[in-house]
Design a protein that fits this description.
- This protein is of the alpha+beta class.
- It is built from 3 helices and 4 strands, in the order E-H-E-E-H-E-H.
- It has one domain: Alpha-Beta Plaits.
- Strands 2-3-1-4 form a 4-stranded antiparallel beta sheet.
- Helix 1 runs antiparallel to helix 2.
- The relative contact order is 0.30.
Length: about 100
Amino acid sequence: MHVRFVYMTAGNLEEAQKIGRELVSAGLAACVNILPHMNSIYVWEGKLEEASEVVMIAKTVEARVADLVARVKSLHTYSCPCIVSLRVDGGYAPFLEWVAETVTK
């Protein structure tokens, strides 16, 4: 069982909710946390930018990360969305088992 947290951002709450519902409904994630009101400072196309964004954290398994990334990319309005997979090295075993059992293979 190789649980992953996939960190993503969206431009607004509605987009994040749409993506989150799609990932869970499709069995690509056991859960998606949505954290609104995050401020980002970044360089894009050579200019310093600031924007309000929404953070999403999807709980999934390693075997589904590629499919999850592809689905997010197909739904996302950004041309280069932030989507990064982070390995979970430990935690509460029953929760990790629930993630692994809930995500469809």
